[in-house]
Design goal:
Strand 7 and strand 8 form a beta hairpin. This protein is α/β, with parallel strands linked by helices. It has five helices and nine strands, in the order E-E-E-H-H-H-E-E-E-H-E-E-E-H. The longest helix has 21 residues. The N terminus is likely disordered. It holds the Pfam family UPRTase. This is Oidioi.mRNA.OKI2018_I69.PAR.g10893.t1.cds.
Amino acid sequence: MTYNAEGTVSVESEMCNVDLDTSRTPSPTTEAENKLDYSAELNVQVLQLTDQIRRLQTIIRDIQSTRSDFVFSADRLIRLVVEEGLNQLPYKETTVVTPNGVEYKGLAFQKGSCGVSIIRSGEAMEQGLRDCCRSIRIGKILIQTDEDTRKAQVYYAKVPPDVEKRTVLLMYPILTHGLTVIEAVKGKGPPS
């Protein structure tokens, strides 16, 4: 996570490409949480900021953008993030036969991947993942911040039963301080 003088935080992770203007979005993070170092707990994959990504970010931030332009641009950004997440999945070499009878040595996904969306905002990324991987299993987690302790807690989790054996693409497009993602990665179930 990097902060700059304008109050903007940029975080790009395996399934998230977020450039969030924190000057307009108050964070529930306590001062003690600000001092914690979670860098060892997250494996962050940074997407290269291209002109295409900047253009899409400009459209979704423009107050004059139409709803249609906003949705199209947000979906495109989600798709780019999903595709980069898929690049991080394990592949295996495979050989197929083309329609003209020639063998082609290519790649296939190794079995055992799934997607998990953090309910509400993460669900916006599900269609992008399904567009790229039609048969992938998708689970859901609801994480909310406890008002008294200001700590993220898992309230609901419906994931594939063998999720601990799978490579998980965690879908959550809003990332201010990472506590929600860290709680999801820890894999603690909802309170009894």
